[in-house]
């Protein structure tokens, strides 16, 4: 990219950062420092001065000056915006500031590569045993750290020999006829290629309780690109996904097992990328995280609750991206409907991974320090499993605690007598 193009892109982002609505948001900051005390990164890394200092306070003094590079230590967990009593868009301001910085300075090749989850899934699935062997090889991981910049101990997805859509094409048609109408299922990149068993179980649960499940072809939501400052690519990705999801129908509820991606469609693409398309608004208002949807059915007395007992203690971690959606912790409420299942909330703010943040060699130690209280809690309270709603958080918890970590829908699947909690 030419220097002129880079400067134009940076100026466009800076104009968004300086627009009237963003200025109004930052001027609501009263310097109470609640976001500072809640920030999981500033608590463990003194190089990050905290969301207030690099966000609303820093922005007041920038006046077209370069963005302070310490903003790149922000993990985009969104905790600051969630806890702010004044409604300041702290995380959103910081995401825009980071995008300005990267537009001015350039985006590392590593940061471009690790955002291509769908491409990685397509490439790894046909050679899954080889891909997994390479990612488990210490020498290969050491080389990856030196050459690419992905930490040798960072969690990696496990490649599967069959994608979700390959399974859908080959599986027998459901024997149970739908009694409730149709739903659209959004599985996310990980559900399509890496968390295939959890995605299968979600579909089987929805079919079991009476729905026809439509699964259109779908790509990436662009969240990883957004988090790495690649706003143009992220905007293209989310717009393409919105179009794909709408092909299955524009009046159907969309159910997702990809918690972070759900947040992207509900609010982040609008608030951070600045996309105001009617199509995005339509999808954002129709999409539900699967536990959120099942609890809505329960509250309407429409969810079958003849669950089989599961005698087990289950540490549960509610991810940051889920908290930012303002829906409470429906997965914990749902799991507590299962007889014998003792659900223990982690009480932790963040696991540290923040999508791609904890993969980077310069961020890995910070990510591990952020997640340590969670990892310790899981190890101390598990009977062999833990639960979490989002994929990269599950990979982080499992790698750092040594405890197998599953999507809550896997337990619901087992409690309905549809199978064992093995994925």
Per-chain topology:
Blueprint: H1 3-17, H2 20-26, H3 34-38, H4 51-54, H5 56-62, H6 79-83, H7 90-105, H8 109-113, H9 117-124, H10 128-135, H11 138-147, H12 164-170, E1 182-186, H13 188-193, H14 196-208, E2 212-214, H15 223-227, H16 231-246, E3 254-256, H17 259-271, H18 278-286, E4 287-289, H19 290-299, E5 312-317, H20 320-323, H21 330-335, E6 341-345, H22 364-381, E7 385-388, H23 391-401, E8 404-406, H24 408-415
Features:
423 residues; Fumarate Reductase Iron-sulfur Protein, Chain B, domain 2; Rossmann fold; alpha/beta; four-stranded parallel beta sheet
Quick structural overview:
With 423 residues, the protein is α/β, with parallel strands linked by helices. The chain is built from 24 helices and eight strands.
Description:
It is a single chain. The protein is an alpha/beta fold and 423 residues long. Among the domains are: 3-105, Fumarate Reductase Iron-sulfur Protein, Chain B, domain 2, CATH 1.10.1060.10; 304-415, Rossmann fold (3-Layer(aba) Sandwich). It has helices at 3-17, 20-26, 34-38, 51-54, 56-62, 79-83, 90-105, 109-113, 117-124, 128-135, 138-147, 164-170, 188-193, 196-208, 223-227, 231-246, 259-271, 278-286, 290-299, 320-323, 330-335, 364-381, 391-401, 408-415, and strands at residues 182-186, 212-214, 254-256, 287-289, 312-317, 341-345, 385-388, 404-406. The strands form two sheets. It has a four-stranded parallel β-sheet with strand order 2-1-3-4. A four-stranded parallel β-sheet has the order 6-5-7-8. Helix 1 (3-17) packs antiparallel against helix 7 (90-105), helix 14 (196-208) crosses helix 24 and helix 17 packs antiparallel against helix 18 (278-286).
């Amino acid at each position: 990219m030419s220097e002129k193009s880079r400067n134009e892109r940076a100026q466009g982002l800076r104009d968004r950062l300086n627009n009237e609505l963003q200025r109004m948001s930052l001027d609501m900051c009263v310097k109470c420092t609640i976001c500072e005390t809640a920030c999981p990164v500033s608590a463990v890394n003194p190089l990050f001065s905290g969301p207030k200092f690099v966000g609303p306070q820093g922005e007041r003094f920038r006046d077209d000056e370069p963005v302070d590079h310490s903003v790149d230590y922000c993990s985009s967990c969104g905790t600051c915006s969630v806890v702010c009593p004044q409604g300041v868009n702290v995380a959103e301001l910081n995401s825009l500031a980071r995008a300005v910085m990267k537009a001015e300075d350039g985006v590392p090749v590593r940061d471009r590569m690790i955002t291509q989850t769908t491409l990685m899934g397509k490439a790894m699935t046909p050679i899954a045993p080889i891909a997994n062997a390479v990612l488990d090889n210490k020498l290969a991981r050491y080389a990856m750290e030196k050459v690419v910049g992905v930490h040798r101990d960072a969690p990696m997805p496990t490649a599967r020999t069959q994608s979700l859509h390959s399974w859908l094409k080959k599986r027998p048609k459901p024997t149970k006829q739908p009694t409730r109408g149709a739903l659209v299922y959004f599985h996310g990149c990980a559900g399509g290629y890496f968390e295939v068993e959890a995605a299968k179980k979600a579909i089987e649960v929805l079919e079991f309780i009476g729905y026809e499940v439509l699964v259109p072809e779908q790509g990436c939501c662009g969240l990883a690109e957004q988090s790495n400052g690649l706003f143009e690519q992220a905007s293209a990705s989310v717009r393409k996904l919105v179009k794909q999801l709408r092909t299955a129908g524009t009046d159907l509820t969309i159910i997702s097992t990809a918690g972070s991606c759900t947040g992207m469609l509900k609010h982040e693409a609008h608030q951070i990328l600045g996309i105001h398309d009617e199509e995005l608004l339509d999808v954002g208002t129709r999409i539900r995280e699967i536990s959120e949807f099942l609890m809505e059915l329960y509250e309407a007395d429409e969810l079958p609750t003849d669950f089989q007992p599961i005698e087990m203690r289950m540490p549960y971690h509610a991810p940051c991206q889920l908290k930012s959606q303002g829906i409470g912790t429906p997965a914990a409420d749902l799991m507590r409907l299962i007889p014998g299942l003792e659900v223990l909330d982690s009480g932790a703010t963040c696991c540290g991974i923040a999508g791609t943040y904890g993969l980077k060699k310069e961020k890995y130690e910070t990510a591990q320090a952020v997640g340590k209280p969670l990892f310790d809690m899981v190890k101390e309270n598990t009977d062999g499993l833990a639960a979490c709603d989002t994929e990269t958080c599950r990979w982080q918890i499992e790698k750092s605690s040594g405890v197998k970590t599953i999507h809550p829908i896997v337990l619901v699947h087992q409690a309905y007598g549809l199978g064992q909690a093995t994925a």
